[in-house]
Amino acid sequence: MKEALNWAFELNEPSVIISRYPCALKKYSENDLNEFGPIEGVCEVDQEKCIGCKKCVRTGCPAIHFKKEIKKSSISKAQCVGCKLCIQVCPTKAIFKAGEQNE
After folding, report:
1. Helices (H) and strands (E) in the chain, counts
2. Per-domain residue ranges for the chain?
3. CB of 87 within 8 A of CB of 96?
4. In the chain, which ranges are continuous DSSP H helix?
């Protein structure tokens, strides 16, 4: 995906990128589930590693909230679908999938 975005940004004309994988926030249809399987689990924030940069918040994920009083992000387990987008943008690796090794 990163390669496709870099290609599109280098163009001096409008472009469209069509992703084959459905958006994690979209309700999966039966066809989506059959082809891609369910996304399971939730992500968590290691408060010790979080520096409050808000990069995860800027992804637009409705499960991520910034707690002003502690200047750190948190993830609602009730809303997280486990897509791992937040993990990809976190510069300090403070976000991890629950149950997986957090290095």
Report:
1. 3, 4
2. 2-97
3. yes
4. 2-10, 30-36, 85-89
Assigned CATH class of 2-97: alpha beta
Compute CA 91 distance to the chain's CA centroid, rounded to the nearest angstrom. Answer: 13
Quick check: pTM over 0.85? no
| Residues 25/59, Cβ–Cβ less than 8 Å | no
Alpha-carbon gap, residue 11 to 82, rounded angstroms: 33
The length of the chain is: 103
For the chain, what is the mean pLDDT? 88
The pLDDT value recorded for residue 95 is: 97
Q: What is the pLDDT of residues 17-58, one digit of tens each?
A: 887 777 766 777 888 889 888 777 899 999 999 999 999 999
